[in-house]
UniProtKB/TrEMBL annotation, chain A:
A Pfam match: PadR
Name of the protein described by the UniProt record: Helix-turn-helix transcriptional regulator
PANTHER family in UniProt: PADR-FAMILY TRANSCRIPTIONAL REGULATOR, TRANSCRIPTIONAL REGULATOR RV3488
Gene3D superfamilies the record matches: Winged helix-like DNA-binding domain superfamily/Winged helix DNA-binding domain
Record-linked InterPro entries: Metal_resp_DNA-bind_regulator, Tscrpt_reg_PadR_N, WH-like_DNA-bd_sf, WH_DNA-bd_sf
Organism: Thermocrispum agreste
TrEMBL record, chain B:
Organism: Thermocrispum agreste
Protein name per Swiss-Prot or TrEMBL: Permease prefix domain 1-containing protein
Keywords: Membrane, Transmembrane, Transmembrane helix
InterPro entries: Perm_prefix_1
Organism lineage: Bacteria, Bacillati, Actinomycetota, Actinomycetes, Pseudonocardiales
Transmembrane regions: 81-102, 114-141, 153-176, 182-203
Length: 107, 218
């Protein structure tokens, strides 16, 4: 699955990854690859502007913190981000349901 | 030059905007590249190959730079819109206070033009503040409206608004210069503060237009 398949869903994926706890940029990239079983192969650089966009929307909060002895920018899902994630999840379930019904064939 | 530094160099050359935010973004990307290199080294790759792999997986630096630039521009626009609200509010209060506290004898007979010019200043201030508020809201709902539109709206609104306010204010002072000797320094000082803040707003507005120019979309 390449970057063009993920386009439009990246924000939701990032929010979902941060649901399990605060992570820094590369930690988020690793979590995306781990949770997708290595199927998500997006350019790692695309994550950084997306994180800034989500931060501007107040869905995540970024702070500089020392992690493993190194200063890193760590992101946390905000309460508004949790709501947005829930909204995107229900939208996704509805979308896949409709597409699945059509693609699945039948009458 | 290492493979990693070439990505950072390209970002460094491309990005324009608030110095601290820009440095912040570059530092985050540098950390990410170092983390990726460390991970590949830990997986057994030689450092030079690990660095090269980290850069290859980063993607097209020009594309990433354009996306980061959109965020830098939006950030500058957000801050400018907030400053506009503070400065316009403070100047309105300042001049209301001066007009209210002035002794009745402080002003030359204003004639019919002063109330008209005063309305022009008030209306221009309100419209400019309104555009600033719209830009603020558009920039806050990051994913729904291209942020460069909002920053351009803000830039043009400030230039037009401050221009109208400046012309009307000068006209007011020409036709209604204070006569009371004790009151003149107050008006001169307030005018000086207003000019400095007005010029500052216009400089930020021009920067907004430059950052969000037609060559930048997003």
């Amino acid at each position: 699955m390449d970057a063009s398949d993920v386009r439009g869903h990246l924000d939701g994926l990032l929010l979902a990854v941060l649901e399990s706890g605060p992570l820094h940029g590369y930690g988020i990239i690793e979590a995306l690859q781990r949770r997708s079983g290595g199927a998500l192969q997006l350019p790692t650089g695309t994550v950084y502007p997306a994180l800034r966009r989500l931060e501007r929307a107040r869905w995540i909060e970024g702070t500089w913190t020392v992690v493993d002895g190194r200063k890193r920018r760590v992101y946390t899902l905000s309460p508004a981000g949790k709501k947005e994630l829930a909204r995107r999840r229900s939208e996704w379930v509805r979308f896949t349901g409709v597409i699945g019904t059509v693609l699945g064939g039948g009458a | 030059m290492t493979a990693q530094s070439s990505v950072l160099d390209r970002l460094d050359r491309s990005l324009r905007g608030p110095r601290r935010a820009r440095a912040d973004m570059l530092a985050e990307v540098r950390d990410g590249l170092e983390d990726a290199t460390d991970a590949y080294c830990a997986a057994g790759l030689p450092p030079a190959v690990a660095r090269q792999r980290a850069e290859e997986e980063f993607g097209d630096a020009e594309v990433i730079a354009a996306e980061l630039q959109t965020e830098l521009t939006a950030r500058y626009g957000l801050r400018s819109a907030l400053l506009l609200a503070v400065v316009l509010g403070a100047l309105t209060l300042l001049w209301d206070l001066i007009w209210q506290l002035a002794p009745a004898t402080a002003w030359r007979n204003p004639g019919p033009l002063i109330p008209v010019l005063s309305s022009v200043v008030d209306t221009a201030s309100l419209l400019t503040a309104g555009c600033g508020a719209v830009a603020l809201v558009l920039l806050a709902v990051a994913n729904r409206v291209p942020s460069t539109w909002a920053v351009r709206l803000l830039g043009w609104a400030v230039i037009a608004g401050v221009g109208v306010i400046a012309v009307a204010s000068v006209a007011m002072h020409v036709t209604g210069v204070p006569q009371h000797p004790a009151y003149v320094p107050t008006v001169v000082a307030a005018s000086g503060v207003s000019v400095v803040l007005g010029v500052w707003l216009v400089v930020r507005a021009v920067r907004c237009l430059h950052l969000a120019g037609p060559h930048r979309e997003g």
